[in-house]
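question for whoever is on the cluster today: can someone run the full assembly for these? two chains, 227 residues total. i dont have access anymore since they changed the login thing
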Amino acid sequence: ETGVTQSPTHLIKTRGQQVTLRCSSQSGHNTVSWYQQALGQGPQFIFQYYREEENGRGNFPPRFSGLQFPNYSSELNVNALELDDSALYLCASSLDGTDHQPQHFGDGTRLSIL
Amino acid sequence: GESVGLHLPTLSVQEGDNSIINCAYSNSASDYFIWYKQESGKGPQFIIDIRSNMDKRQGQRVTVLLNKTVKHLSLQIAATQPGDSAVYFCAENEVSGYSTLTFGKGTMLLVSP
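^ ran it for u. tokens below:
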């Protein structure tokens, strides 16, 4: 069974740039959620994709957007990067976004904004 | 919004001791809870979960207790090992059309040999 994989592992960008982060879900999982984890904090929910549609969204501005593909992999896009966007971005997959199923996380992408 | 909080930011124990990590939650609509372990440089790793219709669940060396009356969750680790050193998060899950996890800040568990 292949777990959740994310790429790249590290990324450095400057303010105003755009970034795309990628996630491959665990085999058999159709739901992907994205989280932002600031240093010393717990992860914060950004949004969730279920069967290629956004299924729920946290308190993040529209410059955070995403996609889910037919194979259930997903992308997180962030436009107009700000210094506060520096964080670990985590992707989690689960079997079903509307039931009590544990979310399994990848090791994240560390994004640094200069 | 409502969030999950932890009482102790750091817990130091000796190898072989039992560890107890506590968590308070505030959202009465939460009906599913998960404990995660996060090691440095890695993503959160699923440890154990519990639904709100249960008050106790056991896994390998771990037990989760849920007290809905006082909105309290705990993770007990038996015979703690150095490899258990990590940050532990409890997360609450409210399913309302979609499932999202709300995390607290975490508790650092330090296990001394």
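summary bc i know u wont read the tokens: The longest strand of chain A covers residues 87-94. The interface with chain B takes residues 4, 31, 33, 35, 40-45, 48, 50, 55-56, 58-59, 90, 92, 94, 97-108 of chain A (CB under 8 Å).
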